[in-house]
Design a protein that fits this description.
Blueprint: H1 12-23, H2 27-31, H3 37-48, E1 53-57, H4 63-69, E2 75-79, H5 82-91, E3 98-102, E4 115-120, H6 131-144, E5 145-154, H7 166-178, E6 192-197, E7 203-208, E8 213-218, H8 222-231, E9 234-239, E10 254-259
Parallel strand pairs: 1-2, 1-4, 2-3, 4-5
Antiparallel strand pairs: 5-10, 6-7, 7-8, 9-10
Bound molecules: S-adenosylmethionine.
């Protein structure tokens, strides 16, 4: 029988914040791999096809903000973790058009229709507990974007056969559908382990064995994220991450939303 979530879903946000605070000092060295060329190209293209302010939601140590700052546009980099913001500030200290904001992505302290591009990358959306809360982040992004503005979101895909063995893929998905705890192959290593599942399919509590801490994570599908964006008034299009045999099955898809007039 699946083990139940160890705490109410609402408590996972604070728990995740604690995890992030603990991880921040070693985030760049251990977790935040350099951006791939594919990711850089999508970011720069999105930047060039929009105007005005850019917001990086859940900026972490500023991996994406650093690149976005080179576009020479006003940039808000935002996170709910003080430690993360502190590190992002160091990375962006030479950028005179960038401002740090400590805030929760579900309640952006930004006026309506004032932003050209919102990015929410590094699988930030998957750390936000409950589909309702994730939808709120997307709705908030839609509220602050001007008409025609763009939103970029990436996430882990539970339909991805990564590592690329279809037998393993079938077994992993069977585990998801049966809602059984299992080893979670976030990367092809054994650092992370899923210890609990539910309440929604794709919901996991993951143990970071190096840190000895557990945190919430939701593994989505392309369809789930595209539907969320459409429900918030976006036209959605998904790019594969350059790995995987199609975007539906991509390891880390990036979905682009254009706010409809
Ligand atoms: C997986 S990290 C990704 C960081 C960065 N985007 C990157 O790719 O390196 C997720 C980040 O989102 C932030 N975060 C998670 N939930 C948040 C929320 N509800 N509001 C604001 N920031 C949040 C965390 O503090 C963390 O820095």
């Amino acid at each position: 029988m699946p083990r139940q979530f160890p705490m109410p879903i609402s408590d996972h946000l604070e728990n995740y914040k604690r995890y992030v605070e603990a991880v921040a000092p070693e985030y760049d060295g251990k977790y935040g791999a350099p951006l791939s060329e594919h990711e850089k190209r999508i970011l720069v293209d999105a930047g060039r096809s929009t105007r005005g302010w850019i917001v990086d939601i859940g900026c972490g140590t500023g991996r994406h903000s650093r690149l976005l700052a080179t576009l020479d546009r006003p940039l808000i980099y935002m996170d709910f973790s003080r430690s993360m913001i502190k590190r992002a500030k160091q990375k962006l200290s030479d950028s005179h058009k960038s401002w740090p904001v400590l805030a929760d992505a579900r309640h952006l302290p930004i006026g309506p229709e004032s932003i050209g591009l919102v990015v929410c990358l590094g699988c930030t959306i998957g750390g936000i507990p409950s589909s309702e809360a994730r939808q709120k982040v997307v709705l908030e992004s839609g509220r602050v974007l001007s008409r025609g503005g763009l939103l970029l979101v990436d996430y882990r895909n539970r339909l991805s056969p990564d590592p690329p063995s279809s037998l393993k893929w079938l077994i992993l998905n069977l585990f998801y559908w049966l809602r059984m705890p299992k080893r979670l192959m976030i990367r092809d290593d054994s650092r992370y382990k899923a210890t609990h599942v539910g309440p929604e399919i794709g919901d996991l509590v993951v143990l970071d064995k190096d840190m000895g801490l557990e945190f919430y994570n939701h593994i989505s599908t392309v369809r789930e994220i595209e539907t969320m964006l459409r429900n918030a008034g976006f036209v959605a299009k998904t790019f594969s991450s350059g790995r995987g045999f199609s975007r539906r099955f991509a390891w880390k898809p990036i979905t682009l939303g254009r706010k409809t007039p």
